[in-house]
Design goal:
Length: 205
């Protein structure tokens, strides 16, 4: 393959949508997740995100990046109001329904897509029943990114639900078996396939 160089001047002049797809794709394949929240009026909300970030395992902390709230951002507002959100892996069976949740709407995405809201273990935020790997998070705080107006929502993992069959001996999860999908850019969905499993690398002298 031939290497093509893009200077900052060049990629900054790209069409808005083209540039969003292009820059978003540079980070590689990311996990596609549906974030479940509930409004102050108890309307369930569901939105697709690819900006999930693992912060740490002990304590178990995660975050999602939310775009600037120059227009209403239900996920951000609901999380800050209700103090809980859920993260639900998108799998092969619900790609199209999950993708539709990126559209602007005044209705509940559960009603529009036919996905099923389910409530587990007293978590006020809805889970997506059709998702196989999902967990609830308690809201901790929002970190504002002043450079572009985005918001990093920090949460602690509370309850986890997943198929027992995907749990491997050392704690790894077989996400290929769970049919979890990844996303490149804004609209290219990818299968997860385990190519090789290697041993943990310890100190090398």
């Amino acid at each position: 393959m031939r290497t093509k160089h893009f200077s900052k001047k060049e990629f900054s002049s790209f069409d808005k949508i083209y540039k969003a797809n292009f820059i978003n794709s540079l980070g590689g394949i990311k996990c596609a997740n549906l974030i479940g929240t509930i409004s102050k009026d108890n309307v369930p909300n569901c939105a697709i995100f690819s900006s999930f970030l693992h912060i740490g395992a002990s304590p178990a902390l995660v975050s999602i990046l939310v775009r600037p709230n120059t227009i209403p951002r239900d996920t951000l507002e609901n999380t800050q109001n209700k103090k809980f959100f859920t993260i639900n892996h998108v799998n092969l069976d619900i790609i199209e329904q999950a993708h539709i949740t990126s559209a602007k709407t005044n209705r509940s995405e559960f009603d529009i897509t036919g996905l099923t809201a389910e409530y587990l273990n007293d978590c006020p935020a809805p889970f997506v029943k059709e998702s196989l790997v999902k967990f609830s998070c308690k809201y901790i705080r929002t970190i504002d990114i002043i450079e572009n107006g985005t918001h990093l929502v920090l949460g602690s993992i509370e309850d986890i639900y997943l198929p027992e069959e995907i749990c491997l001996e050392n704690g790894d999860l077989d996400l290929e078996k769970a049919q979890t999908v990844g996303v490149t850019g804004l609209n290219i969905y990818n299968k997860v396939k385990i190519e090789k499993k290697l041993d943990y690398v310890h100190r090398i002298e």
